[in-house]
């Protein structure tokens, strides 16, 4: 069987810091634009969520040095600060949105914004649960509702089939993962660092590289190649 890799980058906010406690998750617009350019300059190939899901379902290859860009939670700045850059660079991204916060939290995307971004053909949406809580805290019925209702809402609003799920806070166990597949998802994303061998064997959620504020392009390049901020040997040095 062929063997390639898929790097999944994990972002949250695009724009100025509005919460100092979470400042590492805010990537300013200029840095985000430079990183998108850098991905192409270094010979990586941005892919869409649909490409990844289709390649997995059909056991097909992905382009060499494939990169999937993900943004967690569905923050409003993904639209106000990030969307114009995404359109300018013409690079696909996926936003994992917590549907229960839409129209209820002013810091979260509205349905009109979600619809506009989706219509661009560059921004896809997948599930991050309903309430953005750790699913392991819920009993089976509660967890299944978080999984299934968020999927249903996105499918009805955007007229799409939602196949991918991202665990809020990366919190899952065997019980939750089984419920996730039972709810109708075929792919899942966690927060464990690293890159993924392709084809993905689905034994564990897809790993992601955590993009933080203040990183230089050298660090970003290392994340693209390995999923980590430090070199392999430095991982063992505190």
Short account of what is shown:
The chain is α/β, with parallel strands linked by helices and 238 residues long.
Structural features, described:
There is one protein chain. The protein has 238 residues and is an alpha/beta fold. The chain has 7 helices and 11 strands. Strands 1, 4, 5, 6, 7, 10 and 11 form a 7-stranded mixed sheet that branches. A two-stranded parallel sheet has the order 2-3. A two-stranded parallel ribbon has the order 8-9. α6 links the parallel β8 and β9. It is globular, with a radius of gyration of 17 Å. The C terminus is likely disordered.
Q: Tell me the span between the first and last alpha carbons.
A: 38 Å
Poorly predicted ranges:
232-238
Total helical elements: 7
Q: Give a short account of the largest sheet.
A: 7 strands, mixed
User: What gyration radius follows from the Cα positions, in whole Å?
Assistant: 17 Å
From the structure above, extract its key features.
single chain; 238 residues; alpha/beta; two-stranded parallel ribbon; 11 strands
């Amino acid at each position: 069987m062929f063997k390639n890799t898929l790097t999944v980058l994990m972002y949250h906010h695009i724009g100025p810091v509005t919460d100092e406690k979470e400042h590492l998750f805010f990537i300013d617009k200029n840095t985000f634009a430079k990183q998108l350019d850098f991905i192409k300059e270094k010979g990586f190939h941005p892919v869409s969520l649909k490409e990844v899901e289709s390649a997995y379902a059909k056991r097909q290859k992905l382009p060499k040095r494939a990169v999937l860009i993900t943004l967690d939670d569905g923050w409003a700045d993904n639209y106000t600060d990030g969307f114009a850059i995404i359109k300018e660079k013409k690079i696909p991204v996926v936003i994992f949105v917590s549907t229960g916060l839409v129209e209820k939290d002013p810091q979260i995307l509205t349905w009109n914004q979600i619809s506009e971004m989706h219509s661009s053909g560059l921004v896809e949406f997948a599930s991050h649960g309903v309430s953005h809580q750790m699913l392991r805290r819920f009993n089976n019925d509660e967890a299944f509702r978080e999984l299934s209702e968020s999927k249903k809402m996105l499918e009805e609003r955007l007229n799409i089939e939602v196949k991918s799920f991202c665990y809020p806070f990366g919190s899952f166990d065997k019980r939750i993962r089984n419920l996730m597949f039972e709810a109708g998802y075929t792919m899942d994303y966690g927060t464990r660092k690293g890159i993924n061998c392709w084809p993905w064997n689905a034994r564990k959620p897809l790993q992601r590289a955590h993009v933080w504020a203040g990183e230089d392009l050298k660090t970003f390049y290392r994340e693209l190649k390995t999923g980590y901020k430090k070199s392999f040997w430095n991982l063992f040095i505190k």
